[in-house]
From TrEMBL:
Keywords: Disulfide bond, Hydrolase, Protease, Secreted, Serine protease, Signal, Zymogen
Protein name: Peptidase S1 domain-containing protein
Record GO terms (molecular function): serine-type endopeptidase activity
Entry's Gene Ontology cellular component terms: extracellular region
Lineage, opening ranks: Eukaryota, Metazoa, Spiralia, Lophotrochozoa, Mollusca
CDD domains the UniProt entry points to: Tryp_SPc
Subcellular location: Secreted
GO biological process, one term: proteolysis
Length: 273
């Protein structure tokens, strides 16, 4: 049996249609169909031109990674939180305006009202790498804007099945490659906590993190902040992780590190207002 058999309280609060993919590279990934993963958004920094992923978790809230929302201040040479005015959140399409790609019909530009990074996040390490964006306006309620379900914390991530990551990040370890304009997905397996600690060490891997991927499939640069989701027995997708970090040049070779959503569920729910 799959680990998410009951619909979680968090999922129930998000509405009855959370986590519904529209079925009829990420490294090693496969191109997604238009609005196939309708909770996916692209977060674009207009100043640094960095891109990150994120997931819709409410009518005007995006879940992502804190490290996506810090930038280096040229004057002080210190990392500072990204101002709301620097960010655009693209939604409603699997094809994004990256490079020379022509934007697809349905692409929506959303502006940010508030950047909410975890108060204990430290840019020098991967701990507490979780953040939320509050948008200025509610997202549409349609097949291209559906929130992902959130896990309750009662499930064993390692027992979950049908797990995958999605993103517009690089599809190889080539340092000159740009992010891809087409959303890609790849199947991954969640490793045991012991395996995770062997890769990243106990100072980085903790009860607040997960490891997944490897064997040629994993998130890569540009996928940061995006969701690690697994399919529940009700057919919905539940978010277990947030793409946090990987080892340089090892996309798809070494499992990536993800923020464990269940650990931060109280903080997420407290800011989902």
């Amino acid at each position: 049996p799959e680990s998410n058999s009951p619909v979680s309280a968090a999922a129930a609060s998000q509405g009855p249609t959370c986590g519904r993919a529209n079925f009829n590279r990420i490294v090693g990934g496969t191109a997604a169909g238009q609005c196939e993963y309708p909770w996916m958004v692209l977060i674009y920094n207009q100043i640094t031109h960095e891109v990150c992923g994120g997931s819709i978790i409410g009518s005007s809230h995006i879940l992502t990674a804190s490290h996506c929302l810090f930038e280096l201040d040229d004057r002080t040479r210190r990392y500072v939180q990204t101002p709301e005015s620097h960010l655009i959140v693209f939604s409603g399409s699997s094809t994004m305006p990256i490079g020379n790609t022509v934007p697809t019909q349905g692409l929506r530009r959303n502006y940010v009202a508030d950047v909410i990074t975890h108060p204990n996040y430290n840019p020098s390490n991967a701990r507490n790498d979780v953040a939320m964006l509050k948008l200025r306006a509610d997202l549409p309620q349609d097949n291209c804007h559906t929130p992902v379900c959130l896990v309750t914390g009662q499930e064993s991530p390692q027992a979950a099945t049908g797990c995958r990551t999605t993103g517009w990040g690089k599809t190889s370890n080539n340092p000159d490659e740009l992010a891809t304009s087409n959303l890609r997905w790849t199947s991954v397996s969640i490793m045991s906590d012991n395996q995770c600690r062997r890769i990243y060490g106990s100072s980085t891997a903790s009860s607040a993190t997960l490891c997944a991927g490897g064997n040629g499939a994993d998130a890569c640069k540009g996928d940061s902040g995006g969701p690690l989701v697994c399919r529940g027995s009700d057919g919905s997708f539940y978010q277990h992780g947030i793409v946090s970090l990987g080892l340089d040049g090892q996309c798809g070779k070494i499992a990536g590190l993800y923020t464990r959503v269940a650990t931060f569920l109280p903080w997420i729910k407290a800011n989902l207002v």
